Amino acid sequence: MNLEEYFKRISFRGSLDKLDLETLKSVHRHHILSVPFENLGIHCGERIVMDLEVIFNKIVRNNRGGWCLENNYLFGWVLREMGFDTTTLGSRVFNSILNEFGPYDSHLINKVVIDGKAYLADVSFGVSSQIREPLELISGKDQLQEAGVFRVIDQGDKWVLEKTGREPHVLNPERANISLVNRNQTKMIYCFTLVPREVDHFRDVSHKLQTDPASLFTNKSILSLQTPTGFKALIGWTYSEVTYKPEEGVDVMDMREVTDDEIEEILREQFNLKLQNKLKPVSNKAWYTL
Predict the structure, then answer these.
(1) Which of 14, 39, 115, 164 is deepest in the core (most CB within 10 A)?
(2) What local confidence, expressed as pLDDT, does residue 286 receive?
(3) Phi, psi of 107 (to 5 degrees)
(4) What is the DSSP letter of 58?
(5) Alpha helices in 156-231 (DSSP H)
(6) DSSP state of 146
(7) 202 near 68, Cβ under 8 Å?
(8) pLDDT confidence of 287, banded at 50, 70, 90?
(9) CB 170 within 8 A of CB 255
(10) pTM recorded for the entire structure
(11) How far is Cα 101 from Cα 240, in angstroms, rounded to an integer?
């Protein structure tokens, strides 16, 4: 494993002379524009493991994406190799159906300290909840990004990440009311504490998320990639291209259903992915929105 291969994978050609915020922002942005958030391994006969070399080979050398336990684990290693003061944290994702945070840390994130200031780095949540750049850990501060306004709020026993977005404008009338369309402009994303975590903290979680029949990830095949103007996603058989229009106060959503025969072409042409095994899309009912 080496940084040069990783930087080539994310097309990062910036200067590494300074371990400053601008460098962190640039590497973070390049990652989310190059590496998809995806759990497709679960739906094409693969096992996802918390092994850094396996993850490096998968994402960097085999041009795949990964879910947060892979992407953010890799990203934390990258930041440490670069010399950044980086700490692994765990977070609990908000369940909009139950209206509560999950019972255990299912989402891995990183805290980075630069010149005495702490930042939240997260390159793997996907869709409209994906931050483009690290967020400063200042409670209640509005931090404007392409997807909307993000805030981290210190509630004493935990921090909460929330986002205020825009109204969805669905181009396809027959798709306007499907469950993937989020109608809540302000939503909680996850909560976390500043307790450092080792990778072992996530091993059982990783197994549970890819085997539990009640898990979001066994109930939906999820693939999304950020673009300069929004993101694209393949959730089950629903392919979406979302364009942020902040000047109009809307997110434009172009959505369509695809057939099994189109899946490989979409993976290749829209996400630059080639799977070793055939993907079996899944889209059971689950709390998930774009």
Answers:
(1) 39
(2) 87
(3) -130, 125
(4) I
(5) 203-211, 216-219
(6) T
(7) no
(8) confident
(9) yes
(10) 0.97
(11) 27
Q: Which positions are catalytic?
A: 68, 107, 122
31: CB partners within 8 A, 6+ apart: 10, 71, 75, 123
Tokens at 88, concatenated: 């692994």
Residue 62 contacts by C-beta under 8 Å, 6 or more apart in sequence?
A: none
**Alpha carbon distance 43, 222 (integer Å):** 10
Note whether 251 and 168 are within 8 A (CB): yes
What's the length of the chain? 290
* Residue 81 neighbours by CB distance under 10 Å: 13
Give the C-alpha separation, 227 to 167, whole Å.
Answer: 19
pLDDT in tens, 177-219: 899 999 889 999 999 999 999 999 999 999 999 999 999 999 9
| Cα→Cα distances 80→90, 112, 120, 133, 221, Å | 17, 10, 15, 18, 31
Give the pLDDT confidence of 115-130 residue by residue, as tens digits. 999 999 999 999 999 9
Q: Are 183 and 168 within 8 A, CB to CB?
A: yes
- Residue 58: is its pLDDT beyond 90? yes
Alpha-carbon distance of 154 to 192, in angstroms, equals 10
In 3D, which of 124, 96, 94 has the Cα closest to residue 109? Answer: 124
